[in-house]
Amino acid sequence: MATEGFAPITHRQVIEAGKTTGQYWRDLWRYRELVLFLVWRDVSVRYRQTMIGVAWAVIQPLTSMIILTVIFGRLAGMRAPEGVPHAVLTYTGTLPWFYFSSILSGSSGSMVSNTRMITKVYFPRLILPLAPMGVTTVDFLISFSVFGALCGLLGFVPSWRVVFIPFFLVCAALTAYSVGLWLAAMNVRYRDFRFVVPFMIQFGLYISPVAYLSDEVGGSRDIAYGEIAAGSIVIVEGAKNPDTGDFVATSVKMVDAEPARRQGDLIGTVREIRGDMVLNVDSTLVQVTPETEMTARIGVAGGFDMVRFLYCLNPMVTVIDGFRWAVIGSEIDLYVPGVLLSAGIVALLLAGGIWFFRKTERQFADII
Question: Tens of pLDDT along 281-316?
């Protein structure tokens, strides 16, 4: 019987002994509207009564792109793929990086910033680290529109693969959420962890390929890009460094097959060519088999690149590479062993983060 003057009860929360785990995961779905409310709250706070407002989502990645382009592109001389402005290369690194770092920063501090909710109301606490994804996605869409204007200004046409950008954004969000769960739980118990997060983000900016190509890390270096005609042979000339034993290329050229076979005493190694062809890292001659022209990437080291593989222990390496692969196109390759390694790392971080967060969650209201 409904009491006059009071709204009828639409949902009753019953917590049964021994069944709290299953109930918890069902509550995550029941409280989905709370996620939308928190996202709307964050967006309103971000852009209401601010001097800069929406421009902040543009200024931060744009100024970072300019600084990093000058440092890595002009001063350090880091290369960009042929036909790709270094500003585009850098911006395609800063966009996913700031998306990741903003979610990580918001997720790690989400418990402390919502102390009153935690101490007064029951809801699955895993919801709170999810909320920063909403306002960060709004910021990303604004920044990406500026990237479109930058491409038009520089005369660069993005690849059709841009349709895969949402997939890599999800990967970046999962990575940030996984790490954020660990940091959010630690931040409740140890308040000085809030000083650790900015340091991690600043340090991660330089150990992630934001302003350079990921294949600059490792035992190989790309030394040429070009169109390889069918039936031609690529010849890499150079010599071995007597101190390190590494091969140092001095020139790369494409010649007709028959004259090339009559040439001798050429030293060289081809690490990787895109497409179907015979690869022999101990030979200077590589036969192109497709009947159509193709783009080739020619390097100076052969075999499995362990350094680059271990570099992908940082999942953001794969996310940034994937973002560039989607935007720039055929000039960027996805390093498949690194993709698999990064996926495994994210899965472990997410599973471990949920376990650690749930283990410490029951104490949040007491110690926060």
Answer: 333 444 444 333 333 444 333 445 688 889 999 999
Q: Do 37 and 131 have their domain in common?
A: yes
Identify the domain containing residue 126 by its residue range.
20-218+313-367
Whether residue 224 contacts residue 252, with contact meaning beta carbons closer than 8 Å, is answered with: yes
| Helix, strand or coil, per DSSP, at residue 334 | coil
Exposure of 65 in the CB half-sphere (CA atoms within 13 A): 23
Instruction: Return phi, psi of residue 281, to 5°.
Output: -70, -10
Q: Going by C-beta distance under 8 Å and a sequence separation of 6 or more, which residues neighbour residue 218?
A: 305, 306, 307, 308, 311
Half-sphere exposure of 299 (CA within 13 A, CB side): 21
**Across the chain, how many H-helices and E-strands are there?**
14, 5
User: Does 349 fall in a domain?
Assistant: yes
DSSP structure string for 184-204 = HHHHHH-GGGGGHHHHHHHHH
> Does residue 208 lie in a domain region?
yes
State whether 198 and 81 are in the same domain: yes
- Calpha distance 157→151 (Å, rounded): 7
**For residue 342, is it within any domain?**
yes
pLDDT tens, position by position, 64-97: 888 988 888 777 777 777 778 888 999 999 999 9
Q: Which helix (H) or strand (E) holds 248?
A: strand 247-256
Q: What's the domain count of the chain? A: 2
Identify which of 231, 238, 278 has the alpha carbon closest to the alpha carbon of residue 259.
Answer: 231
